[in-house]
Amino acid sequence: MNFQGSRRRGEDGIAMVIDFLLSNARLVLGVGGAAMLGIATLAVKRLIERAGRAADDEKVEQKMAESWEELSLVSASPTMIRKGIEGMVMKHVAKATKQQKADLCQQLQMSSLEEQPKPESKSKRLQLSVLSLQERLQQYYHTRAALSPHEVRTAQSLALDICTEIQGFLHGRHPDMPLGEMSLGGSLLDDLQVVTADHACLLVPLQLEASLWRLIPGEETLLTHPLHWMVQRVNLEYFPRGRSYWDRYLVGGYLSAEAVVNMFSKSIMETVNWPSISSTLDCIVRPILGGPNLRLEIKHGSENIGAESSDQSLFISMLPLLREGDVVLTAQPELSSPWFNAWHLSLYPWETQRLAQLDSADDGCRRHTLQILKAVCRLNPALRPLEAAPLANLILHLSDSEGNWSESSLHIRFQQCVTELIGYLEQGALHSYFKPAVNLLSGLSEDQVDQMGFMLYCAVSEPEILLI
Predict the structure, then answer these.
(1) Structure-derived torsion over alpha carbons of residues 381, 384, 385, 388, reported in degrees to the nearest 10
(2) Is the dihedral of CA 442, 444, 446, 451 positive or negative?
């Protein structure tokens, strides 16, 4: 390929090389190769942008040198060195941009004479350039991640109203059903929800007789999965079947999570007069039927949340659960598939409690960091498959080796989280902090891992791309 022609031919040449390499990167090179190409391309892009913004020839040469130095990150990737791809990419990129570098200097001289930047836009650009990563993280938290107190109160109030209506209905329709006091749970209650207040959990505790039921840890069952517990009916020789209300949902001598969910689906989702509740609460409430979850969608009244957000929905998930000490089991058959009768051990209470304890002990920013990471993953399509649990466990693992979690070190911990996450993705495993046998990345596909690795590798040299 000939890149020694005119400026236009040079631009076409580099575009052809980069388009070819990037379009085939993930197919041929995998996560590491594609990520290296992203870093190289990003460095070239910054070279061009910096040269176009420079004010004189000396600054042009200086900023070009800085941009080329960023390509040294390619050498820092051990996967790339082993695969021998570094030489190929550097050869093509250097050859393609040799002519481009000379043309940029000429273009700079012409553009500086033809057009002077507007003072207002120049000052705005200068303001952005002087922001440190620490300042950008704080700005991102306050403008994109954190929820306003009014939004949180509105969502919590609406969820509590729904909770009261459902509990009243169950007490009237099924007075003999042994249930505990329903309550809200999840990130909305724990001040860990980000971007928008659009989901909440309604906890529905089942009351079991201690002498009739036994909670069996997953490691002690035939399933051998730490998160898939069984609830066994015991003492049948002394207390025959029928003595407990929940005996009607037994399958093979065990309380079936799927049978309990199906019961609540018929008793609540398909039976409650939702139009009447909608009229009472001045909102639109409708059940989401046909799936394994017990979910409600609530559209707020315009006077409650503002005309600009009147189309926003709040989704409430009902979670039947069992408590014994600090163990919380939830009836979520989609999480224990294909063993639909098993109960899911929720690690969320342990994780949030541990983060709160650590932050209270040293006035740290772990929860603050978690909120920023959650917002970044939610707003970035490539990182969206990464849920809150892996991010929380990432911070817990990092807390064991890093003691300084003050607000002033937020930018350092954020960059460490990105680097650590790349390592976990390369290994294909991020083990649970409380249950090391559980791999929190097992639900990700190979393509999702490739896309996340590509994005995070690029963010090593340019962490700001995650804060757009």
Answers:
(1) 170
(2) negative
Q: What is the C-alpha radius of gyration for the chain, rounded to an integer number of angstroms?
A: 28
Helix 133-140 and helix 410-427, axial crossing angle in degrees, nearest 10: 80
Per-residue pLDDT tens for 268-316? Answer: 999 999 999 999 999 999 999 888 889 999 997 644 444 444 568 999 9
Domains of the chain, each with CATH number or no CATH: 149-301+311-345 (3.30.460.90), 349-466 (1.10.1410.40)
C-alpha dihedral over 454, 455, 460, 463, to 10 degrees?
170
d(CA 126, CA 431): 43
pTM, rounded to two decimals: 0.74
**CA atoms of 75 and 107, how far apart (whole Å):** 31
Residue 356: both structure tokens together: 């709160």
C-alpha count within 13 angstroms, C-beta hemisphere, residue 464? 13
> pLDDT for 203-226, tens place per residue?
999 999 999 999 999 999 888 899
CA distances from 461 to 48, 126, 139, 191 (A): 17, 20, 20, 31
The tokens of 125 are what?
């650009």
CA distance 194 to 191: 9
Q: What is the 8-class DSSP label of residue 97?
A: H
Half-sphere exposure of 124 (CA within 13 A, CB side): 5
Which bin fits 391, alpha (ψ -120 to 50), beta or left (φ > 0)?
A: alpha
> Between the CA of residue 430 and those of 69, 423, 443, what are the distances in Å?
32, 9, 11
